[in-house]
Amino acid sequence: MSQELPTWLAESPAYEPPRDRDGFVRTNLLRLAALPARMAQAAGKPAFLDRLLQPVPALVRFAGLIVSVVCVSAATNMAFVWVVFAAVLVSLALRPLPQLRATAPVAALAALIAGLVVLPGALMGMAPPSLVVRMAVKTFCTVGLTLGLAQGVPWSRMASALTGAHVPAAVVFVADAAMRGIFVLGRVAQHLNESLALRSVGHNQHKSGSAGAIMGMTFVRASIFAGEQAEAMACRGYDGTSTAAPERASRVAGVLYALAIICVVALFVWFERAMGVG
Amino acid sequence: MGSLDAAAQVPSSPAVLEMDDVSFAYGERPALDGVSFAVRRGEAVALVGPNGCGKSTVLRLCVGLDVPDAGTLRVAGERVDAQSMADAGFAKRLRQRVGFVFQDSDVQLFCPTVRDEVAFGPRQMGLSEDEVAQRTNDCLALLGIEELADRAPYQLSGGEKKRVSVACVVSLAPDLLLLDEPTNALDEDGERRVVAFLRAYVAAGHAVLMTTHHRDLVEALGARVVRMDAQHHVVAAD
Ligand SMILES: Nc1ncnc2c1ncn2[C@@H]1O[C@H](COP(=O)(O)OP(=O)(O)OP(=O)(O)O)[C@@H](O)[C@H]1O
Ligand SMILES: [Mg+2]
In this structure, is residue A177 part of a structural domain? Predict the structure, then answer.
């Protein structure tokens, strides 16, 4: 069987791409969607901080996260928030470069968005200008803390911890499936994004259109994948009970970590009481 | 723009792709260790080796999805590295010149219909709608998928999707075609179609670099074999 190529393909004439400002929305939206996959890729070797906190039970760290986030959100005194902000910056700085690259931009982007949301109000005099900074810094802290935990404690360990805490298996399973879904979504988005970049060789008049198509396809793919995975699990005899093995962790480390969290709360209370609104 | 060094070394025909002592790692995990080989115009090269030896990684580097940690990579004489890829114009030119068919077709297809999918690249290049339609019809015919034109890509079978993903890359009129395990999902007829197309493509003076685990595909294409080992080295290029 021999084939003739059309002339446009046989000759493959030289191509000079037109100038095109690559869509800010497209790049950043997709970058955000691809985050779980990038975080998993960056996971590699545990950071110094994560090795140090390894023996702390996952649930204690989770509780610590919730408490810190609540304190930061509720704080009326910015001094406390600045202390936490400094701590988050230090913890980010202690991470290896790939992990830093996966987290810091997201925290910064979230902070930027939070600031922008309140900016019009501040400009029109309906809110104090300091609110813009306040929102941005608080958002940076909470997102930074959350991503830090997500990187430090693999989800499989969190699922084990929940099982160990006698949380019903069905609840753990649903949470587990949701986490996997988020991860798969991220990976699918990353690959579709690469494929779009490879074929975006010119001026893209339908930028938001293709970003939308990719986001839509991401959901289609992820839901197909979730369905196929459920079928595969059923084929392997999954009956809706235990998925995770119990966690092994140190009680002493847990108590020490809990004490540290109590110190954070004490700091929060002290700043709020002693220094008032600042 | 292009350097002619490569042509001087290989009098028969100029190299479209040259890897010289290229190393690359995903974080801490090495994927390529001092890999060197070249692909010339008018030839098909098959990259073979055990799972995880780095074949797919070679293809990712060739199209600039990742850049070498060390060593040099040239496509059509132009160096591909972090610096050149930062230039959006260079990246776009590279991606028109080098077509990449992913191993997993699902990640490659994102348009509502097969026709839109194939037309996406030519439209990006700013061709007139007449030219776009011409190229689209040609590509559908070349891969024997005319009857799929109005279907949704994600509803197709694995083999159909594979032919669509080849068509949607070919419509960019690339000079070098990279294919990651192209025949895995294909039946005999599908494989014959793709092989016939690739032979014509190579005969027209273009080049093909593919990864595969199938000897018969290598033979059907008359491809030169570049073998890698589990230590991420090239061990033999005949
Ligand atoms: N995204 C990634 N993150 C981390 N490691 C990766 C990634 N992709 C590949 N690797 C690793 O890099 C090495 C080379 O992978 P690659 O996919 O290039 O192998 P391959 O030769 O194509 O294998 P196969 O024949 O199975 O397709 C493997 O050890 C793999 O585990
Ligand atoms: Mg591979």
Answer: yes
